[in-house]
From TrEMBL:
SMART domains linked: A1pp
Protein name (record): RNase III regulator YmdB
Organism: Propionibacterium freudenreichii
Database matches in InterPro entries: Macro_dom, Macro_dom-like
Pfam families (UniProt xref): Macro
Source taxonomy: Bacteria, Bacillati, Actinomycetota, Actinomycetes, Propionibacteriales
Domain Macro: 1-168
Length: 234
């Protein structure tokens, strides 16, 4: 299970295996997050970029380099589309996230920090870019254990969390429907406080629970929302 969290912070200081850099097709330092990452990593980052990617990257694609002076061991560079001009733009933005996760799996990365790709650097409004990020990160299969979304301010962070929570609830309800279709008529959704604080969601087979001794509790699967770690993929 992959835990996904959203926080306000500086992506260049995150103690994770990899951070994601929203760059341009030529992969030369621009402004914003791209410039901040290059400045923090040192000149060796650009040297490796030039060596590994002499012709740059296509929009929607991604590639990795080492992290230089960063706490992160790797930097995964990706190129987002400029502004949401069409359905194709949305598909390319989603591709950025999927490709980053694919590369993370290839490198054996367990923790990764993403910026909100598209907002500011590529001219996307938050209400267009953020739902794509939340949906893609929650739906894309990956072996990464923790995904952090680093927001520039509390407004962006809260928008990200709202999208993650809405998506998690939808997937949970879809799961209940599938179980009902498979004959688990006693399945119910139960909400309560989790052991580490915050909320948790459980799917339990009520009929099966009735057959157990009072000292035992059967949980078919547990889904946590609003925990201290963020939102878990369901």
């Amino acid at each position: 299970m992959t835990a996904i969290s959203a926080v306000v912070g500086d992506i260049t200081t995150q103690d994770v295996d990899a951070i994601v850099n929203p760059t341009n097709t030529e992969m030369r330092p621009g402004g914003g997050v791209d410039r901040a990452i290059h400045d923090a990593a040192g000149p060796g980052l650009l040297e490796e970029v030039r060596s590994r990617f002499p012709t740059g990257l296509a929009v929607g694609d991604a590639g990795w380099t080492h992290g230089g002076r960063l706490a992160a061991r790797y930097v995964i560079h990706t190129v987002g589309p400029l502004q949401p001009t069409s359905k194709k733009s949305e598909q390319l933005l989603a591709s950025c996230y999927r490709r980053c996760l694919q590369i993370a799996d290839e490198l054996g990365i367990q923790t990764i920090a993403f910026p909100v790709i598209g907002v500011w650097s590529y001219g996307w409004p938050g209400n267009k870019a953020i739902p794509i990020e939340a949906r893609t990160l929650m739906e894309s299969p990956s072996s990464v254990s923790r995904i952090m979304i680093i927001a520039s301010d509390e407004v962006i962070r809260d928008q990200v969390l709202a999208c993650l929570i809405n998506k998690a609830w939808l997937r949970l309800l879809q799961g209940v429907r599938v179980l009902h279709e498979r004959g688990f008529e006693g399945v119910r959704v139960w909400a309560g406080f989790g052991p580490v604080g915050g909320w948790r969601i459980q799917i339990t087979d009520v009929d099966y629970m009735k057959k157990l001794p009072d000292s035992e509790i059967y949980i078919a699967r547990e889904y946590r929302l609003f925990t201290n770690e963020g939102v878990a993929r369901v």
